[in-house]
Design goal:
Helix content: 40-55%
Number of helices: 14
Distance between the termini: 51 Å
Structural class: alpha/beta
Shape: globular
Number of strands: 9
Radius of gyration: 19 Å
Length: 300
């Protein structure tokens, strides 16, 4: 293969890791980012071609895809997600790409015309999948479950560092969270040789489906100290996130809905798709925490 693979959302955790995997496999990569920064500079140093542009800009999408045979579509949680999907799909169809790999969400498998959720983002993912299926593009849908990086690193790091507690409103619900690195490895595998994957859906989970007490025990073993789970009430937790100012209303609604769905055991899912595609099992919670141990330890 001589043409580059386009990776959108390359500044995000999954997109950046997809670029990393593809480069290691000897693939030519074009990374689309909204703005040049340190992360894009590091990719450029490794031979990745950088395309700066907004997915909502049809001309920028055209420039990014031109000359690429394969496309990975990923975008951060955004109310403009569906518009970006249509933009990229229209341009990809114009250029007759060989593969269009779309990252979605596992909740889409439980959704339909009469069955949806209160998350605006999950609704957009369901609609995006419908549109891509109608488009006639050679699509592969990748549906990961909740990310370890979100609830168990970004949103739990401070409470673990300061109080040795995981404070989340998940009740007794079970969850099989996955590392972004595992999702990226699956996507890179599909992009490298997509022929056998076209038209299929892959639902990605972590190593085990566990309740929060079990996950706290995994944290304890990885960190060598007692970490406990505190089942905080949902509304005060949601309000704390809102008041923090760190999330847009769209992202907040998405994460708050996910928390309620976890309470309802809607995330008690387990598949073998990570290992089936990438030939490597996903990280367990303990291994993930061990990798990020320094972030969880209190500063001394």
């Amino acid at each position: 293969m001589t043409n580059p693979i386009l990776v959108t959302g390359a500044a995000g955790a999954v997109g950046y890791a997809v670029c990393d995997h593809l480069v290691k496999r000897g693939c030519k990569v074009r990374a689309m980012v909204r703005k040049a920064d340190e992360r894009s500079a590091r990719l450029a140093e490794r031979g990745v071609e950088i395309a700066v542009g907004d997915l909502l800009d049809l001309h920028a999408a055209h420039r990014a895809i031109e000359g690429c045979d394969r496309v990975y579509f990923g975008m951060s949680v955004s109310p403009s997600y569906l518009e970006a999907t249509f933009n990229l799909a229209a341009v990809a169809k114009h250029h007759k790409v060989d593969a269009f790999v779309n990252i979605s969400q596992m909740t889409v498998s439980q959704m339909g015309i009469t069955s949806t959720t209160d998350s605006p983002q999950q609704k957009l993912h369901w609609l995006a999948e419908q549109a891509l299926n109608w488009s006639g593009l050679p699509v592969v849908h990748i549906r990961p479950t909740a990310f370890l990086d979100t609830f168990f690193l970004r949103l739990s790091m401070q409470s673990i560092r300061q109080h040795q507690q995981i404070r989340l409103p998940f009740g007794d619900g079970k969850i099989s969270p996955i590392a972004s690195e595992d999702v990226a490895r699956v996507i890179a595998t599909v992009l490298e040789a997509p022929a056998d994957y076209i038209g299929k859906i892959y639902e990605l989970t972590g190593l085990h489906s566990q309740n929060m007490d079990d996950i706290a025990e995994e944290f304890s073993r990885a960190l060598g100290q007692t970490i406990t789970y505190v089942d905080v009430p949902w509304e005060p937790w949601r309000k704390t996130l809102e008041d923090s100012g760190m999330l847009t209303p769209h992202v907040l609604a998405h994460l708050a809905t996910m928390a309620l769905l976890i309470q309802q055991n809607r995330y008690d899912r387990l598949t073998q798709d990570v290992e089936r595609v990438s030939k490597t099992p996903p990280l367990g919670v303990r291994e993930f925490v061990h990798q990020h141990a320094q972030a969880y330890r209190a500063e001394t």
